[in-house]
Amino acid sequence: MTLPILWITEHYPPVRGGMATSCARQVRELRKFGLTVDVLILNSASLETVPRDGGTDYLIPPDHEDGLAPNLAFAALNGPYAVVVGFGASGAGYYAVTFAAWLNVGSVVLVRGNDLDRDWFLPQKSAWLQQAFSRASAIGAVTPQKVERIRQLYPHKHVAWTPNSVDLSRWEPLPADLRKRDEVRGLLNAEGKKVIGLFGELKAKKRIPWWLESVRDRGLLDQIRLLIVGTVDLPTAMILEDPAIAPRSLRLPFSSPDELPALYRACDFIAIPSLFEGMPNVLLEAMACGVVPIVSDAAIPLGDAGFVFPADDRDAAGVATAQALAHPDLPSLAARAQRFARETFSPERERAALLALLDIAKP
Questions:
Q1: DSSP type of residue 304
Q2: CB atoms within 10 A of CB 226
Q3: How far is the C-alpha of 249 from the C-alpha of 77, rounded, in Å?
Q4: How buried is residue 362: exposed, middle or buried, by Cβ count under 10 Å (0-12/13-18/19+)?
Q5: Cis omega (within 30 of 0) for bond into 80
Q6: Do residues 149 and 161 lie in contact, with contact meaning Cβ atoms separated by under 8 Å?
Q7: Averaged in consecutive runs of 10 residues, what is the pLDDT profile of the chain (363 residues)?
Q8: Fewer CB within 10 A of the terminal residue: the chain, N end or C end?
Q9: Which domains occur in the chain, in start order?
Q10: Cα–Cα distances in Å, from 106 out to 47, 99, 136, 158, 262?
Q11: What is the reported pLDDT for 172?
């Protein structure tokens, strides 16, 4: 592919969060592979053009009047391009198919967590999604469930699974990480208990109160400690402060990537009981550190690499948690989780999935 790729996103560092992490990783891997990728970053703090190794970053501030930002964005480009990619369907994807039509090239729309689960049901964003899906040359989705749902809506479109990835070598612990791990477990008074991690933005869709109720109903509260890293919404915070429904916990703010290997390793399990979900980076990162998942089936398919329950079944959530806590060989489970992450979610597999979509989208 000799011409550059135009990559459009609303999520890119220094913005924090899983979307920005995934977006930066995918761009980085494509640039390392030798492709030129120009990144059009919407909602930036200022209007800038920044040369990078392997492409140019175009930073576009948000609208100060209707229609200003997209027109500034298109005017800033220095094409021609081979294909236009929208990272996220309801914003960036809509821009991508529009700009691709104006540039007379193909387009790829990458569907992430909330695009289909939330934005499809919001009037303005649903219109953007419908345009993005109907006009895209190819569509990638972050979970097999989303692939199937998009195919049912658009049966004649090429839709493929484009999974996130994790590089296990980046999560090897340093001696300081192991000391920090032991310090955190000490703060939790975790001797004889199992530590379950809750990582990320713990908002309503994550259903932490719902899961804790299932844990209480199974009589498991005195067997566990919680390590909470990230933010919690008000209902979750209130539940966590109620000793009748929540075990002892330690709450920490969002942490830098350098701190996460220690915090993951302080956990025996990670719980993600979401009603709907993309493919959480925290899940793959935790598995890379040997942390065993307890997750709803809204997340990625795990096979025997974790404990999975139906997203609509609270009793099953409690059963899965009880089975995890009672397992007699936690080290073997940890090794299985690491192996699954390494074999199923390698950077090479993620890059290959993206390259296949780019090849399909080329005119």
A1: T
A2: 21
A3: 49
A4: middle
A5: yes
A6: no
A7: 90 82 94 96 86 93 78 87 95 95 97 88 91 97 92 97 93 95 96 95 90 95 96 88 87 90 97 89 95 89 88 95 96 95 93 96 85
A8: C
A9: 5-165+346-361 (3.40.50.2000), 168-344 (3.40.50.2000)
A10: 26, 10, 7, 13, 43
A11: 93
Is-contact 38 81, C-beta < 8 A?
A: yes
Residues 7, 27: contact at Cβ < 8 Å? yes
The pLDDT tens digits of the residues spanning 174-203 come to: 999 999 999 999 999 999 999 999 999 888
Q: pLDDT of 281-308, one tens digit each?
A: 999 999 999 999 999 998 677 878 899 9
Q: What is the DSSP letter of 290?
A: T
Instruction: Please report, for residues 93, 168, 268, the alpha-carbon distance to residue 173 in angstroms, rounded to integers and kept in the order given.
Output: 37, 10, 15
DSSP 191-256: TTSEEEEEEEEE-GGG-HHHHHHHHHHTT-GGGEEEEEEEEE-HHHHHHHT-TTT---EEEE----
- How many whole angstroms separate alpha carbon 275 and alpha carbon 282? 17
Q: Which residues pair with 357 in a beta bridge?
A: none
pLDDT tens figures, 195-226:
999 999 888 889 999 999 999 999 999 999 99
DSSP 259: T
Quote the strand ranges of the chain, DSSP E: 5-9, 37-42, 48-52, 55-60, 83-87, 106-111, 138-141, 159-161, 194-202, 224-232, 249-252, 269-272, 292-296, 307-309
- State how far the alpha carbon of 234 is from the alpha carbons of 116, 237, 241, 274, in Å: 25, 5, 11, 17
